[in-house]
Amino acid sequence: MQESDLSEAALVHQSAFVRQRRSFEWLQCNLKAFPRYMIYVAKLDEQPDSKVVGYIIWAQKSGFRPESVLELEQLAVLPECQGQGVAKALILESLPLVKQQLAEQDSVLKHVLVTTRADNFAQQLYKKTLGAEVESTISNLYSADEVLMIARNVGDTIQ
C-alpha cells in the first residue's frame, strides 16, 4: 500500500467493518508503522489509477525475532468483489513479499495467527490457504465471540 491508496482503502475498511470508525486514520497509522505492519492492496487491474478493491494487513508479533510470528491482522474486500478470489489472492500473493521483508531483517516466518468472529465464513479461507486451525474461542471480545486460529510452521509450506 502507498499513501495514495489510503482514501480508497479506507472505503474498503468502512464497508467491511461497519462498527469501526476513522478508517483513514486507522490505515494511515498502520501504514506508517512499517515494517511492524506490512499492508498490501488488491486493485482491479495493473493500471496506476486502478481502484483499490481490498487490502491485507500483516503484523509482526512480539518484536523482531529470528523466527517471526505474524498476525493476519485484517483482510477486507469490497462487498461487490467478494466471492471472486480477491481475499485468497491477497493472502497468497502478499505472503511471499512478507517473507522477503522478513529475510531482509534476518528472520524467517514461523507461525501465522488470525482472530476472527466465530461466525465468520472466512475461517474456511484461512484453513484452506494457510492451514490455520481454531485453537480457542474468546467470548464476547469485540462484537461477538472470536476464534483464535493458528497456522503452525508455515514458513516452509507457503512459498
UniProtKB/TrEMBL annotation:
Pfam families named among the record's database cross-references: Acetyltransf_1 (PF00583)
Top EC group: transferase
Domain N-acetyltransferase residue range list: 1-154
One GO molecular-function entry: acyltransferase activity
UniProt key word Acyltransferase: yes
Top-level taxon of the source organism: Bacteria
SUPFAM superfamilies assigned to the protein according to its UniProt record, in alphabetical order: Acyl-CoA N-acyltransferases (Nat) (SSF55729)
Record-listed E.C. numbers: 2.3.1.-
PROSITE patterns for the chain: GNAT (PS51186)
Keywords, sorted A to Z: Acyltransferase, Transferase
Protein name: N-acetyltransferase
Organism, as annotated: Vibrio plantisponsor
The organism's taxonomic lineage, starting at the top: Bacteria, Pseudomonadati, Pseudomonadota, Gammaproteobacteria, Vibrionales
